UniProtKB/TrEMBL annotation:
Domain of life of the native organism: Bacteria
InterPro entries linked to this entry: TM_pro_TauE-like (IPR002781), TSUP/Inactive_protease-like (IPR051598)
Protein name per its UniProtKB record: Probable membrane transporter protein
Organism: Hyphococcus luteus
Gene Ontology cellular-component terms listed: plasma membrane
Keywords: Cell membrane, Membrane, Transmembrane, Transmembrane helix
Record's subcellular location: Cell membrane; Membrane
Pfam family for this entry, one: TauE
Family: Belongs to the 4-toluene sulfonate uptake permease (TSUP) (TC 2.A.102) family.
């Protein structure tokens, strides 16, 4: 059975797309990420044009994040105050990111920009997360060595207008989550991701938020920022294929609920280590794709 995608201009097997959406939705609920860091490369590997993969994936990220966030709201593991500041910065960042995406699309360099961005960000963040997780796991098995508490950077405490975030147990300036949300929103719009693979470690190691609150708050932020990004991509770049997005949503919403339940059974260190391995695996696959020569050096689209 084949389904024709009007914006991507190609037929796909809907059951394969739904299965991919379910798998990524499961990861979204488990790790507190939108899943775009995995879904966008999978769509590109499947043959979807990179620009359409980025624009359409934001539909699935929004839906799966809603499903996953609802599970965390029931467990009261969402810091709405922190999430509000993240969303404020993310809305502005996503608008600028869509503008940059359009500029790269016009120059014909968007595929290279997407692939290189994934390799750089996934490689760096995956490596840092894996290193920290392995160290934490080894320390937890060594009863003779005390585990040192993570400390926020000194510059974070020096920012003005500090306020108390009771759910997270923090007393910091709202400027830091606003800036973080802005950066994630801009990167997410260009790469077709919710930004959770950057947001989660940043909230853990920079903002110093507790692990149990990070996952739900990350999903809360992703809902609004990716919804804004979807609308902007559809209006400015015409790269959102609704048919493709709905197939991914159908699988993603179901998978996210199972992911939330699975994530509650694992320790924070185990979750971070597993996420790091998945991130590095996707990075390696993209790097191989960049290193291999193209199948064809010239593409003839037809006479004008």
């Amino acid at each position: 059975m084949q389904l024709y995608l009007p914006i991507a201009e190609m037929p796909v097997d809907p059951f394969v797309v739904i299965a991919m959406g379910a798998a990524v939705g499961f990861l979204s609920g488990m790790f507190g990420v939108g899943g775009g860091f995995l879904m966008t490369p999978l769509l590109i590997f499947y043959g979807i044009p990179p620009a359409v993969a980025v624009g359409s994936e934001t539909v699935q990220i929004t839906a799966s994040s809603v499903s996953g966030a609802l599970g965390h709201i029931k467990r009261k593991t969402v810091d709405f105050q922190m999430g509000g500041f993240l969303v404020a910065g993310g809305a502005v960042g996503s608008a600028i990111g869509v503008f940059l995406f359009r500029a790269f699309l016009k120059t014909g360099q968007i595929e290279t920009v997407i692939s290189v961005s994934y390799v750089v960000f996934l490689g760096a963040i995956g490596g840092l997360m894996l290193t920290e997780s392995v160290r934490t796991l080894f320390r937890s098995t060594d009863t003779k060595r005390p585990v040192r508490k993570r400390r926020s950077p000194a510059w974070l405490a020096a920012l003005p207008f500090p306020m108390r975030f009771r759910t997270s147990g923090l007393y910091i300036s709202p400027l830091s989550p606003i800036a973080l949300g802005f950066l994630i929103g801009m990167i997410g719009a260009v790469m077709g991701v919710g930004g959770g693979f950057i947001m989660v470690p940043a909230m853990l190691y920079i903002l110093n938020m507790p692990t149990n609150v990070v996952v739900g708050t990350s999903l809360f932020h992703i809902i609004f920022v990716t919804a804004i990004t979807t609308l902007l991509h559809a209006a400015a770049n015409q790269t959102v294929d609704i048919a493709l997005g709905l197939l991914l949503v159908f699988g993603g919403v179901i998978g996210a609920q199972f992911g939330v339940r699975a994530g509650m059974k694992l320790k924070g260190e185990q979750l971070r280590a597993l996420l790091a391995l998945i991130v590095l695996a996707v990075c390696a696959r993209l790097l191989i794709g960049l290193a291999l020569p193209p199948a064809s050096f010239f593409i003839v689209e037809g006479a004008q």
